[in-house]
Amino acid sequence: MKRALVVLPILLLLGGCASTGPSVSPTTKPAAVATPSAAPTEPADADCVVVSQSALDLIGASLQPGITVSKATAARAPRFEDTTIVAAQLVGEGVPADQSVAIFATTDDVTVEPADGLTLAVGPVATTYSSLTDSTSVLGDITLTEDGVAQAQACLAL
Fold this sequence. Notes:
Layout: H1 2-17, E1 49-50, H2 53-62, E2 67-76, E3 84-92, E4 101-106, E5 119-122, H3 123-129, H4 135-138, H5 147-157
Antiparallel strand pairs: 1-2, 2-3, 3-4, 4-5
């Protein structure tokens, strides 16, 4: 009986070491996993992020009546691990063409459904046309000078 108690744990340990799958060395990188996006095409720039439909819906629901998002792209905020900057082209009555790009900061993963993170308005266009909280009242250091803002705006122009 004692022999069985000693042999069984050894067999379990050895069995756990056996594998039928491919071996991975410490220098081998795991294969990337593709995440389906809500948009049919990816932006041309690798730093651009496609915004999911639920993230667009969340922003759209915060806009004044008669104002909609015609296009939106995003970029990661380099200084913040979990923040994405969304640039949204607004259209509607009273939105001047030269002031139609609204910037939003979100902790949501904008590439997947559903949108469930904190989303804030950044700058005067977003605060004028949306009911979302102004980022300066919550995260005072996310402003229009944030690196991710320029990238998101550049992505919007693609």
